[in-house]
Amino acid sequence: MTGPHPICDRLLEYVTGEIGAEDREAFERHLPDCEDCRREVETLTAAWEALPFDMERIKPPRDLKRQVFAALDVLEGKPAPGTWRFAGRRARPAAAIVAAAAFLLVAGGLLWGSIADLFRRDAAPFPPDLPAAVPVAEMEWSVPLQPAEGERNDGYGIACVVRQGGSKQFIVYVFGARRTTGSEAYQVWLVSGSERRSAGTFRVSDERGVGVLTVPIRSDSFSFDAIGITLEPDADGSQPRGPRVFTGGAPPPR
């Protein structure tokens, strides 16, 4: 196939199950002739599978695709365009779409049950000791993470603070990170002036490069000037020893 076809624009709807039966059949007839769509369906489907969707099922929002693309623009620091072609713009890899989806998950607490249906993963029942009503999660701020200078990867990420009820958490998501081996660990560093402190470590165990760190916050004055993620030989370091892999700036002023 020499160029993007209009049906390529329906790729995200196809993967998330929002596409109608007639359009689904048309998209599936199109797949054998479009190597780009086949590759992105495989990558995006695998990445979605890595996210925790074994939760309470609700109907996905009608504007799911618009929300994901708008979140992707936020992650990349770009204004939302009026139109967007999925398969026609290869500068945005599937990992970026997944990062945008994670952005929406932590920002609005969206639990898209139809995606779990798509992958035939039965929702696990809640343990009986959980409260009947769970407070709504709300994102206070977010910082996009990009590959560090000199890094050759398509990784994306986001760092954010989420408030839920009376508690807050600092959350870091990365996608497309290199898989850790042995005692290796990714370490998150928060830089304030000349001081650098560790926010925690995490490992990436699957081939899709998905990693997450969650840290409870007890102070309302949580801030930093920059954020960096390094790949360390182990999880015990008090100073960076390995290469810097992801970087991000300061939280937005509030």
Sequence-ordered SSE layout with sheet pairings:
Blueprint: H1 11-16, H2 21-30, H3 35-49, H4 64-76, H5 94-108, H6 113-118, E1 137-147, E2 156-164, E3 167-175, E4 185-192, E5 195-202, E6 211-217, E7 226-232, E8 244-248
Antiparallel strand pairs: 1-2, 1-8, 2-3, 3-6, 4-5, 4-7, 7-8
Helix pairs in contact: 3-5, 4-5
What would a concise description of this structure say?
The protein has 254 residues and is an alpha+beta fold. The chain has helices at 11-16, 21-30, 35-49, 64-76, 94-108, 113-118; strands spanning 137-147, 156-164, 167-175, 185-192, 195-202, 211-217, 226-232, 244-248. Helices cover 26% and strands 25% of the residues.
Number of domains: 2
**Main beta-sheet strand count, sense and barrel state:** 8 strands, antiparallel
- In which order are the strands of the major sheet placed? 5-4-7-8-1-2-3-6
Number of strands: 8
State the order of secondary-structure elements, H for helix, E for strand. HHHHHHEEEEEEEE
Tell me, rounded to a whole number, the average pLDDT. Answer: 72
Low-confidence stretches: 52-59, 78-92, 106-124
Distance between the termini: 48 Å
State the secondary-structure class: alpha+beta
Approximate shape: globular
SS field, number of helical segments: 6
Strand content range? 25-35%
- Helix percent band: 25-40%
- C-alpha Rg, in Å? 19 Å
